[in-house]
């Protein structure tokens, strides 16, 4: 007797920095979504696909929902997150073991609008000194909404992620494969490359960092043994350009090297990467620019 095959969409929602992308990468077993301690690391809706003999789970990673910023890019990201919830079979609302913050409640409100199966994930339990602190948090959470399940876990060390994977299939509808078996993401090389560069910039630039930076792939040649990339790093001010380039170009070189190494291992071939830094005032408020670098989804 063969079991019925199930397939469906699972959104991961939460404020910035709770660990959504880290969880997605752990489940897929491959780094498809960039992560960093900074908000705005994930700017796009991104699919991560996990396929077994019995099911296909299509996870939707979302930019964190945030309150309080009027910048156009933040509005676009909140809309991307809200859109990602439409039509999914399960929503995973993620908070951390620190407890409920204002933005967590806002994310819960968004999730409740769509009336899907809602599961609460309490991430970063590795940070708890005393695991007894979890019980009151689980209890108070269950008063906020009738969650299908409340699962404490650690996305970074993998603790209890399997519990989530065991619970999920129950909520997926009977369905044939929705994506080919071997596919792990909906994004192509261009996306992976620009996102990898952006992650290295975010990670190298500590606190001086202009959140207002974007990476645009100018030229991409993919050959069997070599990938050639020309990319522009857009910033908003001359002073930011200086910070990114660094003394004698050192910072930009480091970013380039780290990105190249990671891309070579991802694509399993040599990568030749050239980075340019350019200034464009207020790009993060500019709809034309946001569209051209792919932050606005085509309707
Ligand atoms: P996102 O904005 O929700 O996608 O969050 P990220 O996945 O980018 O992670 C934000 C930060 O939290 C990164 O520095 C991660 O390494 C860290 N992080 C994610 N999951 C865990 C976890 O389970 N435990 C700990 N200690 N840190 C985590
Ligand atoms: Mg993210």
CATH 4th-level superfamily of the largest domain: P-loop containing nucleotide triphosphate hydrolases
CATH architecture annotation of the largest domain: 3-Layer(aba) Sandwich
Terminal Cα span: 43 Å
Biggest sheet architecture: 6 strands, mixed
Structural class: alpha/beta
Strand content: 15-25%
Tell me, what is the CATH class of the largest domain? Alpha Beta
Question: Cofactors and ligands present?
Answer: guanosine-5'-diphosphate, magnesium ion
Task: Please count the helical segments.
Answer: 9
Helix fraction bin:
25-40%
From the alpha carbons, calculate the radius of gyration and give it in angstroms: 20 Å
Number of domains: 2
The shape, in one word, is globular
The CATH topology of the largest domain turns out to be Rossmann fold
Oligomerization category of the chains in this entry: single chain
Q: Could you tell me the number of beta strands?
A: 9
SSE series? EHEEHEHEHEHHEEHHEH
Low-confidence stretches: none
Structure notes:
The chain has 299 residues and is an alpha/beta fold. The protein folds into two domains: 6-171, P-loop containing nucleotide triphosphate hydrolases (Rossmann fold, 3-Layer(aba) Sandwich); 189-292, K homology (KH) domain (GMP Synthetase, Chain A, domain 3, 2-Layer Sandwich), CATH 3.30.300.20. Helices cover 34% and strands 23% of the residues. It is built from nine helices and nine strands. The protein has helices at residues 20-28, 72-85, 102-113, 134-144, 161-167, 189-204, 238-245, 250-267, 287-292; strands spanning 6-13, 46-51, 55-61, 90-96, 117-123, 149-152, 214-222, 226-235, 270-279. The strands form two sheets. It has a six-stranded mixed beta sheet, with helices on both faces. The protein has a three-stranded mixed beta sheet with strand order 7-8-9. Strand 4 (90-96), helix 3 (102-113) and strand 5 (117-123) form a beta-alpha-beta unit. The longest helix has 18 residues, at 250-267. The model has no long low-confidence stretch (mean pLDDT 87). Bound molecules: guanosine-5'-diphosphate and magnesium ion. Guanosine-5'-diphosphate (GDP) binds next to helix 1. Guanosine-5'-diphosphate is lined by residues 14, 16-22, 35-37, 41-42, 64, 123-124, 126-127, 154-156.
């Amino acid at each position: 007797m063969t079991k019925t095959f199930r397939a469906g969409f699972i959104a991961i929602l939460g404020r910035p920095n709770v660990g959504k992308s880290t969880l997605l990468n752990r489940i897929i077993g491959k780094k498809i979504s960039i992560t960093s301690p900074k908000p705005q690391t994930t700017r796009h809706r991104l699919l991560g696909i996990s396929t077994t003999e019995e099911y296909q789970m299509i996870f939707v990673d979302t930019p964190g929902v945030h309150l309080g910023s009027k910048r156009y890019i933040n509005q676009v990201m909140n809309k991307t997150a809200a859109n990602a919830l439409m039509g999914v079979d399960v929503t995973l609302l993620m908070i951390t073991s620190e407890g409920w913050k204002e933005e967590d409640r806002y994310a819960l409100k968004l999730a409740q609008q769509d009336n899907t199966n809602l599961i609460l994930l309490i991430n970063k339990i590795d940070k708890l000194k005393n695991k007894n602190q979890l019980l009151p948090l689980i209890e108070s959470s269950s008063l906020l909404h009738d969650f299908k399940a409340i699962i404490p876990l650690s996305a970074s060390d993998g603790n209890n992620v399997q519990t989530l994977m065991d619970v999920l299939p129950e909520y997926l509808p009977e369905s044939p494969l929705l994506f080919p078996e071997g596919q792990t993401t909906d994004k192509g090389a261009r996306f992976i490359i620009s996102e990898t560069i952006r992650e290295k910039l975010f990670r190298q630039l500590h606190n001086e960092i202009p959140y207002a930076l974007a990476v645009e792939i100018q030229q991409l040649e993919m050959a069997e043994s070599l990938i050639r990339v020309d990319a522009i790093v857009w910033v908003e001010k001359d002073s930011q350009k200086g910070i990114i380039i660094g003394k004698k170009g050192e910072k930009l070189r480091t970013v380039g090297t780290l990105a190249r190494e990671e891309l070579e291992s991802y694509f399993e071939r040599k990568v030749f990467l050239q980075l340019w830094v350019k200034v464009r005032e207020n790009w993060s408020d500019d709809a034309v620019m946001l569209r051209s670098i792919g932050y606005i989804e085509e309707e």
